[in-house]
Amino acid sequence: MTVETFLSGETGSAFINLDGGKFWLSIPDQAGQSPFETLAAAQAAGDRALAELDAKQASEIARSEGLDDEWAFQLDRDLPTFVSAAGFELTRMKRGEWAVFEGDEELLKAPTAADAASQLAARNSFAPSI
Question: Is residue 100 within 8 Å of residue 88, measured between CB atoms?
Answer without folding.
Answer: yes
